[in-house]
């Protein structure tokens, strides 16, 4: 399977390495320390992506930006994974209209399937984190449950071109196909990993008795994050403000406007999820950057069958010295159950600490080591084990090849 | 560069009669700002107030404004009006270079590792250039109405050979366009000399934190 994915990706690279396409292939292989519990992708209680140990194909990403004309660009990201329900698929595919205008305020429109530019850490190709193997709790969740299938329009003014220290961008978007977002936060809780969901992919989680019982909710122990259930449009509004190229603040308000009373033939519910997100990044020097994000939101399913508030924040620092990069991140997260259904407790909270060292060996190759501890308590774990508490340690060694 | 010896011979052949016709002297300039920091990319244009017996030759090849690592190189290019400028693209990605400045309006599509046909810059003025793909790219082409100009290096130094005589002098810097470098509008050059110029303004530090902070 892995061989066929690699062969397919390599073939696409060779075809698309034309003059008009900027194409990059990234393959990352990791050695992961042994896991004690089965991961959520195999309906286990662990918040870890991998269940087994040994060598894993953790990322195979092919990105291509193709200049269709002066103003139109087509971008796509194809991902191959060894784990999960789907091994090959598309995570992003969109066209961008960016006309050349004389006015100091310039427009841009994106149409298709893409991420909102909400994360300060996922700045590498294919929405990978530049400084870590695993994403923060916030962006692990966004990578698995949030994707925009719609239109985003923005106006921006770049300060540097107008002798100003300040740049800004205002963004609005409408989208469909993001109706079940909130499911994983409620039934699995926050997790930290680098597995992005592919289009039409389903993501498993542990089968909470009240959720899966035929006589109770009778929902499946999986979700399909980009499914359209209620035919309603969601939206987000955002503003970016930057001082020179040193500091930047981004604010996003997201509301999928899902009709929480709707469910589809697979008994997948629409979850009305909305949140505020604040992202900040700052360069202390060209070699040292700090960044962080805070997320405050809530999600509602059914007639207050599930109603949860969720919070998360992280702060990270990254220091580059010659070919070496040292990074550290602290995550906090919490889900507070506010509904009356005691058979489905959704309370969870935890924190994680991540250290990463990455060494660039050449333009095509880098190696990294990452240690992480993620611990907390989660009420619904009592259905599967003796304690609500969990403590998950992860040590990964990765080799990343890019061409 | 294989034509370098030929170029050298040509320049020598042109320069020798030139230096015989006009008596040339060397002017060394060091520019610091109001805080005493060395000023890079400071431009001084010298316009002779007298008739040159033999004007200097036009450049044989176009000037070059390259694109390297999503930045214009050089950040500031100074050319005499009537000079062609070539736009190579050393990056392995697409650039869409444009200017809306009154002195020269253009757009060039630069596919990766590609050089467009040179453009002629005839009208004197400051031409701001940008890239529609990479908002943070910014460069300047200073089109001088005189063939005599200098641009300071990272240490704030530059030098120029000038025919003896009186020149109108003008200073320009991308981050301090209105800063004054000279006490008067003209200067008499009659022998080799070194000038230390101090601007009346502080030039803001370079903001070129270009890696990893792009749009995403």
TrEMBL record, chain B:
Coiled coil start-end: none
Keyword tags: Signal
Signal peptide: 1-21
Protein name (database record): Methylamine utilization protein
